[in-house]
Amino acid sequence: MYKSSLILLVLVMLLQSCKSKKEILYFQDAQNSNIEKINYQETKIQPNDILSIIVSTPLPEAAIPYNSQSLGETNFNIEALKLQGYLVSEEHTINFPILGLFSTKDKTIDALGLEVKQRLEDGDHLKDATVNVRLLNAKITILGEVKLPGTFTFTERSITVPQALGYAGDLAITGERKDVLLIREENGKRSITHIDLTKTDWFDTPNYYVKPNDVIVVNPNNTKVKSAGFIGNAGVVLTIASLVLSSIVLISR
């Protein structure tokens, strides 16, 4: 009788400790997702952004006065490039060589590049100029139940939330996949969005792409929370139950 009770208790505990696929697998409704067009919203330039603005022309020497970095210097790392970049002021402006102040308020990097090009040509400074603008200090912070929590920099024009989580080595098995927090500060406002990584219904929203300074928080799942308690770990519970039942068996003999 006692052996049967012990076996039953072990089976119950094992069943409770097992996690179903619905709690672990990503994008479980992917077969139902049929998004034909990706609605990417380009990030607007914010104060304290550091921009790289490179002007080039068919005659390279003509563009030298309009570049803070020589076009021949190609071995700089990202930190060195930041020192030579254009820091956006709290007033949403940058000071560009020869051309003077540019307002970055409510502008994307593409829009700023077009404005620089237009002013170069309208002022008869350069003809057939190409202007390449990049954000140098874009970063995201990923915290919680991931393998490599921390702050990560990126220079790509756009990265998605799954890509960002890949920077952190993916979620740990103890991470809550159905309620990942995306904290975003933009234009003086803070928003907190809850993302369910087991679904795809958020793919066609502005939250699919991360923006500079976003914070992603992966909370622990119920198993991890319970394991932090006194007898939350299934192994501990089984050990205690085994000792109790063994004691009962010995006493009853």
From TrEMBL:
The chain crosses the membrane at residues 230-251. This is Polysaccharide biosynthesis/export family protein. GO terms for cellular component: cell outer membrane; pore complex. The lineage of its organism: Bacteria, Pseudomonadati, Bacteroidota, Flavobacteriia, Flavobacteriales. Residues 41-135 form the Polysaccharide export protein N-terminal domain. Its main location: membrane. It comes from the Bacteria. Residues 139-218 form the SLBB domain. GO terms for biological process: monoatomic ion transport. Keywords: Cell outer membrane, Ion transport, Lipoprotein, Membrane, Palmitate, Polysaccharide transport, Porin, Signal, Sugar transport, Transmembrane, Transmembrane beta strand, Transmembrane helix, Transport. It holds the Pfam family Poly_export. GO terms for molecular function: polysaccharide transmembrane transporter activity; porin activity. It is found in: Cell outer membrane. InterPro entries: Poly_export (IPR049712), Poly_export_N (IPR003715), SLBB_dom (IPR054765). Belongs to the BexD/CtrA/VexA family. It is a multi-pass membrane protein.
